[in-house]
Amino acid sequence: MEKENDALRKPVRYLKGIGPKIGAILVKRGVKTVGDLLYLLPNRYEDKGALKRIEEMEDGMTGLVLGTVASSRPVYYPRARKRAFEATVHDGTGSLILRWFQGPLPYLKETCESDNTLLVSGRVSRFGGRLQMVHPQVAVIDDKDGIEGYERILPVYPEIDGIKQGTLRSLMRRALEDCDHGATSLLSREIEESYGLIPLGEALVKLHCPDETMLDGAMYRRYVERLILEEYFLFQVALFLKKREVTREEGISFTRDGVYRTRFEKSLTFELTGAQRRVIGEIEEDMGRKAPMNRLLQGDVGSGKTVVAVLASSMAISDGYQVAFMAPTEILAEQHYLAIHKAFDDMGVPVAFLRGNMGAERSVILDGIKAGRILVVVGTHALIQKDVLFNNLGLVVIDEQHRFGVIQRKILKEKAGSPDLLVMTATPIPRTLSMVVYGDLDVSVIDEMPKGRKKIETKVYLDKDKGIVYGLIEDELKKGHQAYIVYPLVEESKKIDLLDAKRMAAHFQKSIFASYRVGLLHGKMKAEEKEDAMSRFKDGEIDVLVCTTVIEVGIDVPNATMIVVEHAERFGLSQLHQLRGRVGRGKSAARCALITSEKRTALAVRRLKTMEKTGDGFEIAEEDMRLRGPGEILGVKQSGIPDFRVGDLVRDGHIMSRARRLAEDAMTRLTVDELDRVKNIVKQRWGHTLHLSDVA
Ligand code: ADP
Ligand code: MG
User: Fold this and answer.
1) Closest-lying ligand 1 atom to the alpha carbon of residue 271
2) Which residues contact 94 (CB under 8 A, 6 or more apart)?
3) Residues above pLDDT 70, as percent of the chain
């Protein structure tokens, strides 16, 4: 068994027929092993047509003929100064001359020996009154009955520069022979059987040496899906293995109804939504358990995740543990700090804000954290710096927004043995993707908005109708509400002809909104300036905030009821959705106006239509993934998306769900030996992506 496995893992350059040149081309394409080669699948098949009688053949026709060789010989055409090899075949209805002007003579001689039965395919032409095929493909047939479909269907592979289709086909055949026709899959036959999987060997043979049944797209998909399922299954097993490592750690078992939790719940001025209560139940369950919690909390902007996280924090501090609360930006961290401070201050719980640049005060806070005097500390990346030491960290909350990678999560956890971990994300991730990127976490979803939240009326306007939009803004301002106007640029650019926040803020203050207070917020401002602008907007000292996407993340000003995005065609879907989430956080109805130039791509039109149609973050995330692909929407290089050989996350998402169910089941069903095999495979394939090195 191990032997055949080795055949699949053999470096591709050791395969017979692969010279250094082809070997190098393959390796460059990521095809390193014989197994990799076999997973390079045809993307379609060509039917060379059914077998024809020679008498049916006419000039210009392509077809497949079965005939017997009458004679063959090398010839020389003195006038053309050309050597050739010729054979005459007949099938009882007529005869046909096969001509080759090049090609290995010994091979042709042997193939075209008299009385051999040949399967001949090619294009027929008329030459000197007789039918001929030039450079036909021929194969010697031993048994006339065995020819049905033989070589009739040609696999067509993705184009690879420097390697001919024919070469690929023969390499595939050789690779299949080498590994005993893929007879041993990485999964044992027992596993294959118990999950109703087609044997790997069968799938590979059918895909690379197709018969007519493969012309049916559904059959092709069936075999391809078999390969994808295996790939996804292995990956999911890896995630479960990783998860199991965590749950084996000794963590903290928190009390569920600690004193601070009870007090916090009493202090809430609203009723929790059903979704919030369900999610709190899940968190409570995890936190009550000895094993560390490792949970992802997903929910649209404004769905009330922060309240849930604060409640979890209240459980931890009730038991005397510390909480670290980490946010991706300083503005957001501060906002969390204010909310948490407000929640806990009355109860006498010390909360600190650790910012990046804070001078002498920093060491006071660090001492407080180290001594355990500070129970809750809120901050940005500053929290994972070396000099931040905790006394007894019990819970880590990460408001992630995709910006923290796996590594940062790990560092923070390493600071304190095995605290519970709650990762929040307000950018809903398509289910398939969260099964891949966060597959080692348990997932809770808040899929319900607090009562009374109204749908944000979203409409797309053309540039020339801007006046209408400015009028709508004024209507809101008259009611005492506030508005955001968002631009793609901070300042005027020589390269692109776009409006920018700086100029427009000045313009508005002088003209249309002269009687209101216009403020400016963009990423190039100093941290203090940003904070100042934000807090003045929050306090109602600014009516119209002209800004760039810095306001994208998590800013909460309930009195802002309108957001306008200019050059909306330049923004991505998730970004637009995030921006829109800045409004509709209060009791009044809210509006989102997307202004776009008439010059825009079809994709942009599709994005804007989606925004008008739905307010559901998950629906938007799915569409965004279809439009941009999974890597892009996570927006970070080290996104943790593994390179699957066959599977495409957008196209084959449904297979991931099935693979996950199978993998979950496999964790209890597989024998120790089988799990070991799987572990080795996944370590080799994705150890790096998954940081699996520590999986024993
Ligand atoms: P998220 O963190 O998911 O963006 P927040 O927790 O900041 O959402 O909640 C958004 C706003 O809604 C906050 O002002 C919060 O106080 C309020 N809120 C949260 N849960 C509820 C609820 N169940 N009912 C009414 N308001 C709520
Ligand atoms: Mg726990």
Assistant:
1) 23
2) 53, 54, 55, 57, 131
3) 91
Q: Please state the three-class secondary structure of 437-466 as a single string.
A: HCCCCEEEEECCCCCCCCCCEEEEEEHHHH
Q: Which residues pair with 352 in a beta bridge?
A: 377
**Does residue 685 carry a pLDDT above 90?**
no
Residue-wise pLDDT for 600-659, tens only, equals 889 999 999 999 999 888 889 889 988 888 777 665 545 567 778 888 888 888 899 889
Q: Which of 17-31, 133-147, 430-444 has the lowest mean pLDDT?
A: 133-147
H/E stretch holding 301 reads none
Instruction: Say which residues have a Cβ less than 8 Å from residue 37's Cβ, sequence separation at least 6.
Output: 12, 15, 26, 31, 171, 172, 175
Q: How far is the CA of 442 from the centre of ligand 2 (A)?
A: 13
In the reported structure, the alpha carbon of residue 323 is separated from the centroid of ligand 1 by a whole-number distance in angstroms of 20
Block residue for tokens 């209560």: 277
Query: Nearest ligand to the C-alpha of residue 290?
Result: 2
Percent of the chain's residues with pLDDT above 90? 38
> Which protein residues have their CB within 5 A of the ion that is ligand 2?
251, 287, 293, 420
Could you read off the pLDDT of 218-233 as tens digits, one per residue? 989 999 999 999 889 9
**Residue 260 CA, ligand 1 centroid: distance in Å:** 20
pLDDT at 540: 94
Distance 558 CA to ligand 1 centre (A): 10
Token pair listed for 384: 């994972």
Beta pairing partners, 302 = none
What is the mean pLDDT of the segment spanning 40-53?
80
**Measured in angstroms, how far is the CA atom of residue 437 from the centroid of ligand 1?**
26
Segment 251-267 mean pLDDT: 92
Rounded to two decimals, the pTM is 0.70
Ordered domains of the chain (ranges, CATH): 63-143 (2.40.50.140), 259-446 (3.40.50.300), 456-614 (3.40.50.300)
Task: Let me know: does 296 contact 434? Beta carbons within 8 Å.
Answer: yes
Backbone region of residue 489 per phi and psi (left: phi > 0; alpha: psi in -120 to 50; beta: other values): beta
Distances (CA, A) of 457 to 92, 584, 615: 78, 9, 9
d(CA 71, CA 53): 19
Ligand 1 midpoint to CA 557 (Å): 12
Q: Residue 259 C-alpha to ligand 1 middle, in angstroms?
A: 23
Best of 306, 310, 447, 555 for a ligand 1 pocket test (most atoms within 8 Å of beta carbon): 306
For residue 437, give Cα distances in angstroms to 434, 440, 484, 639, 641.
5, 8, 33, 7, 6
Ligand number with the minimum distance to the CA of 271: 1
Rounded to whole angstroms, the Cα distance separating 37 from 8 reads 9
Ligand nearest to the CA of 289: 2
Ligand 1: which atom is nearest the Cα of residue 308? 6
Query: Which residues lie with the beta carbon below 6 Å from any ligand 1 atom?
Result: 270-273, 276, 299, 301-307, 426, 450, 556, 585
Give the number of the atom of ligand 1 that is nearest the alpha carbon of residue 558.
14
Is a pLDDT exceeding 80 seen at residue 71? Answer: yes
Counting ligands in written order, which one lies closest to the CA of residue 422? 2
C-alpha to C-alpha distance for 462 and 361, rounded to whole angstroms:
51
